[in-house]
């Protein structure tokens, strides 16, 4: 269910609402669904990348889609964020239908895609300004909105530098702040810590935790087990299918009969295959190769 005052239009973020942050708190008490997929399916020719996915992410929840490379996580994110049309089933974000109400969905959702999406030739401030205009934030509010986003990302001192000079951690923080500028209710992060060193990874994760405490709903795709362990609930997916869904403790109890196990063991028991980093695709391998001085320096 959505707050009526925010429904129906591209966001007109008010200064008090921007950059993440003080506002919010669940719009609906009692864990209403922020994201609802019903039989969600996406085919690419003969390949079914997402195969009848049915799940709900509750308001204010930190929810992980956990699965190996190629499981269909990014495809799911692309459908939820209206980038890709489902070939079957339905999906709703904050009560809006991704197919019939894409504009409303985009107003309610903030996204950090797996692929870096900053313009390296622009400064941090310019990157945010472009996005503010694209998001329909009123001209009179752009300056304050961008200032707050930069401060939130702890990049105010670097606002005038081109992104080319930024480390992987800084880029990710900037992308996260950008995703929040229009005051979305739901944040979707597709492998947000991919290619980051442990310190940058931890920092980003702390920011996600803070946002969650502020009432934001967060859906995170990952194949890093410690990140999934930190989530309220985890959906384990493989080959486009949902295998199990529950809190980490529930999954371990249900699948293995003991809570002392790891999610890796749960995955292994479900699929007979480990959830390995070695299965990383070429991009992950390239990113690993280019890691330097602790952070990604591409
Ligand atoms: N545009 C596309 N055209 C054809 N096949 C695609 C396309 N996008 C994804 N796929 C295929 O769909 C399957 C699911 O891919 P997807 O990227 O959603 O998985 P993932 O779980 O996000 O993995 P990764 O972490 O590697 O991105 C893979 O087999 C992939 O090759």
Automatic annotation (TrEMBL):
Keywords: ATP-binding, Nucleotide-binding, Transport. One of its GO terms (molecular function) is ATP binding. SUPFAM superfamilies: P-loop containing nucleoside triphosphate hydrolases (SSF52540). InterPro entries: AAA+_ATPase, ABC_transporter-like_ATP-bd, ABC_transporter-like_CS, ABC_transporter_ATP-binding, P-loop_NTPase. Residues 35-264 form the ABC transporter domain. The keyword Nucleotide-binding applies. Transmembrane segments: none annotated. Gene3D superfamilies: P-loop containing nucleotide triphosphate hydrolases. This is ABC transporter domain-containing protein. It comes from Limnochorda pilosa.
């Amino acid at each position: 269910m959505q707050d009526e005052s925010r429904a129906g239009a591209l966001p007109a973020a008010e200064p008090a609402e921007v950059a993440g942050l003080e506002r919010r708190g669940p719009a609906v008490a009692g864990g209403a669904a922020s994201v609802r997929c019903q039989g969600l399916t996406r085919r690419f020719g003969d390949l079914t990348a997402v195969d009848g996915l049915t799940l709900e992410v509750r308001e204010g929840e930190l929810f992980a889609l956990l699965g190996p490379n190629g499981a269909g996580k990014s495809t799911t994110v692309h459908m939820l964020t209206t980038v890709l049309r489902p070939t079957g089933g339905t999906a709703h974000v904050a009560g809006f239908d991704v197919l019939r109400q894409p504009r409303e969905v985009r107003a309610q959702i903030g996204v950090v895609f797996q692929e870096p999406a900053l313009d390296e030739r622009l400064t941090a401030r310019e990157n945010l300004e472009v996005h503010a205009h694209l998001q329909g934030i009123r001209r009179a509010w752009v300056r304050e909105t961008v200032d707050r986003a930069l401060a939130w990302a702890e990049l105010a001192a670097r606002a005038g530098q081109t992104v080319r000079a930024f480390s992987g951690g800084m880029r990710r923080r900037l992308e996260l702040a950008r995703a929040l500028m229009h005051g979305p209710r739901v944040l979707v992060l597709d492998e947000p810590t991919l290619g980051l060193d442990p310190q940058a990874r931890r920092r980003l994760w702390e920011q996600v935790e803070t946002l969650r405490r502020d009432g934001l709903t967060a859906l995170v795709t990952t194949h890093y087990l410690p990140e999934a362990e930190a989530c309220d609930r985890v959906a384990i997916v493989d080959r486009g299918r949902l295998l199990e869904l529950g809190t980490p403790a529930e999954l371990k109890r249900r699948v293995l009969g003991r809570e002392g196990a790891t999610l890796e063991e749960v995955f292994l028991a479900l699929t007979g295959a480990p959830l390995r980093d070695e299965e990383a695709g070429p991009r992950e391998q390239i990113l690993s190769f280019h890691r330097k001085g602790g952070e990604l320096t591409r």
